[in-house]
Each structure stands twice: as structure tokens, then as C-alpha cells.
Specification:
By secondary structure, this protein is mainly beta. About 10% of the residues lie in helices and about 40% in strands.
């Protein structure tokens, strides 16, 4: 009887792991994809139900996260540090946000231009960590705005959009 219970438990675990990658078991939207946190209190759990412990809590709405899997109404997310956990779908928003990432060479500020051209007038220099809304991206440049700034930034300087991704 013990081996039968163990086999049943392993089947349930394997089934839930496979279900996380089943497109019929979630929203039907592409995975992976970027979204943002909707609330100022987002519990991140170790698994896709409320029986799992809360691993940590995000307290800043608008932060970008990447959905890496779906299981029913739960989304596995990854943050900018690579930490992963499960969040209930209603705590996420399709609003595209991003923040200025550190440069590959240094943590230098990122140039925000008037247009999608490095020769256009400079509007601001944004420090790594500045959070904003992504209005659109061409695959190379993104229209990026937030509290006190609005302009175009090189797409590679943002965390919250994929390289060469077009956002309309």
C-alpha cells in the first residue's frame, strides 16, 4: 500500500509540474512575458496555491516582473534579481513598466532623448533603478515616461522589455 501511495504522490507532483507549462492550463497568453505588479502588497509563494508559504512580499506597485509559467490562476514570476515564485493572477497588471538597468560596462546613468535618435536633444540622465512606464518600443528604442520625465531611451538600458521586442 505504501508504494501505491508513493506512486500516486509522484504522479500528482509530475502532473502539477507539467500543468505549469500547458497552454490550456492558464491565460493562453505568451509565456514568457513581462507584466507589472498591480498592488502595494504582493505575496510571492513557493507554489501555485495558498497552501504554500509566503516566501516574500513586494511592496511597490508598478515593478516589472516576467511571467515564466502559468498554472490555472497562478503565475510563476521572475524578478530583476532572478528570484522566482508564484503570484495570484489578479495581483498582476498587463501595464508595461520597466526600470533603468545598470549598463553592461558600469552603473552609469542612461540618456533620455527627445526622439529615438542618439543625436536628438538630451532630456535627462536617468540613474539605474528609475521606474517608468513603457509607452512603445521599436526594437531598439523605447518611449519611456515617469514622474518628471518623458522621452526615448535605448531599449537595452531597460529591464522589463526583451531585446528587439516591439511594443505598440
Amino acid at each position: 500500500m505504501t508504494s501505491a501511495l508513493a506512486a500516486l504522490a509522484l504522479t500528482a507532483i509530475a502532473g502539477s509540474a507539467l500543468g505549469a507549462n500547458d497552454p490550456d492550463n492558464g491565460s493562453g497568453l505568451p509565456v514568457p512575458r513581462f507584466v507589472s505588479l498591480k498592488s502595494d502588497h504582493v505575496n510571492v509563494r513557493g507554489g501555485p496555491n495558498k497552501d504554500h508559504d509566503v516566501a516574500w512580499v513586494y511592496t511597490r506597485p508598478g515593478l516589472p516582473v516576467e511571467i515564466t509559467a502559468e498554472f490555472e490562476n497562478w503565475r510563476r514570476i521572475r524578478d530583476w534579481d532572478g528570484a522566482e515564485g508564484w503570484v495570484y493572477h489578479s495581483l498582476l497588471s498587463g501595464k508595461r513598466t520597466a526600470f533603468v538597468a545598470k549598463s553592461k560596462t558600469a552603473s552609469a546613468p542612461a540618456a533620455l532623448h527627445e526622439s529615438a535618435d542618439p543625436e536628438s536633444p538630451l532630456k535627462a540622465m536617468l540613474e539605474p533603478g528609475v521606474l517608468g512606464v513603457v509607452k512603445r518600443c521599436s526594437g531598439r528604442w523605447c518611449r519611456f515616461f515617469g514622474n518628471g520625465f518623458d522621452g526615448w531611451i535605448e531599449q537595452e538600458r531597460l529591464w522589463g522589455v526583451y531585446p528587439n521586442e516591439k511594443v505598440e
